[in-house]
Amino acid sequence: MDQGAGAGAGPQRARGRLGAPSSGMRAPGTPWARFSAWLECVCVVTFDLELGQALELVYPSDFQLTDKEKSSICYLSFPDSHSGCLGDTQFSFRIRQCGGQRCPGHAGEKPGDRGAPASLQREPAHYFGYVYFRQVKDSSVKRGYFQKSLVLLSRLPFVRLFQALLGLVAPEFFDKLAPCLEAVCNEIDQWPAPAPGRTLSLPVMGVVLQVHIPSRADTPESGPLEPSGHETLLPAPVVLPSVHELDLFRCFRPVLAHVQLLWELMLLGEPLLVLAPSPAVSSEMVLALTSCLQPLKFCCDYRPYFTIHDSEFKEFTTRTQAPPNVVLGVTNPFFIKTLQHWPHILRVGEPKMSGDFPKQVKLKKPSRLKTLDTKPGPCSSSPGTQRQALGPGRGGQWGWHSRRGCPHPQSRARGSLPSPGLYTAYTAHLHRDKALLRRLLKGLQKKRPSDVQTAVLRRHLLELTQSFIIPLTPPQIRPFRQDDFLQSLERSGPQLTCVLKGDWLGLYRRFFKSPHFDGWYRQRHREMTQKLEALHLEAICEANIEIWMKDKSEVEVVDLILKLRERLVRAQGHQLPVKEATLKRARLYIDTAIGSLPKDLQAVLCPP
Fold it and tell me: Given the DSSP bridges, would you call strands 272-275 and 344-347 parallel, antiparallel or unpaired?
């Protein structure tokens, strides 16, 4: 285990050699190939009294991160000073990969993604960080507190799975440290690949996690599929109902009255700031919001947890241009002042799981935010600000106690916080579904389990998204014409599948200007192009090639060979939905066509 693989945050000195970045998933048969199908690396972030947050360890030790990525991981792996997180807490973040796309494959579907829902495909240009943070009193530490985070870095949005994995591994790691972590990584390196549609058994630390990897063929009603072929499931005492779905009802409890309005904001790719009391609440709310469009892929940027020290702080907070299409989760009230010009700000409090219908946040005008005093307190310095370590001040209150932005556990922030609410001037296009609220309220009164309430809510959002998307889905290879589509809504619009009334036409017009329309159109166009190419290949392979070649010139035969080879390469790379029998016939046709050519051409097409 290499203790010097990483570097600390920001400008602090590096603790190891920084070489060429690793290129994402490793080739089959190479060291850590199976591990890299699930995780990029495991990081340990600690608090150093001299350096601040520091990257103590990266495993596997040959995985390389840029200095900017290391800095982001360090800052985002610790709650900021406004959270006051004592004990153990879990949350997640998402960072942009530096240096461009490293994940192999072309800009479309990646290896291992074939059959996966669009919203669950591997991220080509971002990392997800899944964090288990522990902060407890420790008299043996000079600062008086043990502070350390275990972080799983992955390209997969499997938040539920990786949270469960951290729940098993982190407590043991904090007791036994490096040897435990090395053993866990070796176990993960024995896991089967996360192939869509399979039910897998994943052994780790004496426990078996049983998970189902979602596939496009899954339906909302379908449970985990039976293991395929030769696979035999081991006893699985821990069955995860989902690798990615959060408890949507718990996340949305304070905003249930506005869930359709929030759905519209997500659909339209509107900028949204989520101010929460902790990274756990912030990251869960952002992930819940971005998941409410499924099966539509969320095509905008989103950051479940974001701090003023992030490398993209200036990019997201600039006032020289319109706010970016991003959902930003924060805990520092300084962002309220900095992002007052954003059109939508959601302020939520700590979740309360009482049996009563939770108090709903109110819709408020954004102008209400301008009257608040949100000056940064002693624990919300600007990026790069150096603060000296302070002892307890008057009354025993601790102040800023780090050089690099990490709070002392008892530090306090100044400034008044806005009351919980959704601060927006947006008017929803669709009418509120009161029947949904009555059904959820009735579920609370009957003490219906949270997972059942979540199923009701998720079904409602799924049907809402499908009703919106269905009119857009008839295959068209010709250019999409918005006016023709809008005229077709009278006879084939969402009113056929959804009872909600409202300005659907206006919602579609705004949707056409959003990044999600562009993402949906590109995905559909790619799928239709691939399907047409597959049908064309099947048609060629069903024809009699010898009869076809009788009256064809050598140039035409060579052209057919080259095109068949190109299609064969794409099909073998899982980019075309073609049966194996068709591939075998295509190979036979290529050999037959080459055999009909003169020897000199054969030598060119099939060099020794």
Answer: parallel
